[in-house]
Amino acid sequence: MRDFYPPIEPFAAGHLDVGDGQQIYWEQSGNPAGKPAIFVHGGPGGGTAPAQRRFFNPDAYRIILFDQRGCGKSTPHIADGADLSVNTTDHLISDMEKLRAEFSIERWQVFGGSWGSTLGLAYAQRHPERVTELVLRGIFLLRRSEIDWYYNGGAANIYPDLWEGYLEPIPADDREGDLVEAYHRLLTGSDRTAATRAAVAWTTWEKSTSYLLPQAQDDDGSESDRYALAFAGIENHYFQNRGFLDEGQLLTDAHLIKDIPGVIVQGRYDVVCPARSAWDLHRAWPIADLHIVDDAGHASFEVGIRHHLIEATDRFAGLAAAEKGH
């Protein structure tokens, strides 16, 4: 079973001015002369964490992590009043292109899960000539049905106990309507105590339902109110605006990536991003290999999920299993 590569430290890090008053945090680790790969984090609003470097062989890859607008170490942070009007999918795609140009990279592998799969697909469909491969996990196509399933009551049939915590900040009169809209009013309202309470409840719902079985929390800094405000505030902003995508756009435009090799890794019991979306993507993009992990949920750190992700990055770097010692 493939497991994480050892922890490594960045060999370079900094911020890139991408306009609109935004400074995007980036870091590079691994081999400066290696195969370029960009890690696209989830959320949106999740930010990056050191463990995410470990999906890549540091001898073979030039590993690039970055925090998307408004979260992580990028500035301004949403907790400090970042302007969400300049935080859209088009802005994030443009930021990725600016990073690529800044690092003088011609083409790179795009690796992302959950929202990272959404943005990774959107980027690849806009710039297919810049992508060597796609490695995607926990597919989220940002269709209305997916949002309604997870945020408007479908997943409550599986986690009714945890759903109570998700509902708790919402006034009783608002619980029969669109709960994403109800949360939007709380997260953007003038009562910052109520906004923080809502942000923590929204974030806790996702963290608590991401694994097939309860696990110790990932080392992602997600215990703080500041993290929750970014995670919930930016996610809700994107979901209110349907990801700034047309309904079904990522499937409709799948022909644009028909020649890009890819791997899709999906937990069979992923409640956050159910396997239907991974199946639909695979049907629209048949060149990609699909691995459905029968004993996993949503999280990238589950054993079967990470096995297939690392297997994919090894394969695309030309590494045989024997070379890795597994």
From TrEMBL:
Pfam families recorded: Abhydrolase_1
EC number: 3.4.11.5
Location in or out of the cell: Cytoplasm
Catalytic reactions of this protein: Release of N-terminal proline from a peptide
Keyword Electron transport tagged: no
UniProt keywords, alphabetically: Aminopeptidase, Cytoplasm, Hydrolase, Protease
Family as reported in the entry's similarity comment: Belongs to the peptidase S33 family.
Name the UniProt record assigns to this protein: Proline iminopeptidase
Originating species: Gordonia rubripertincta (Rhodococcus corallinus)
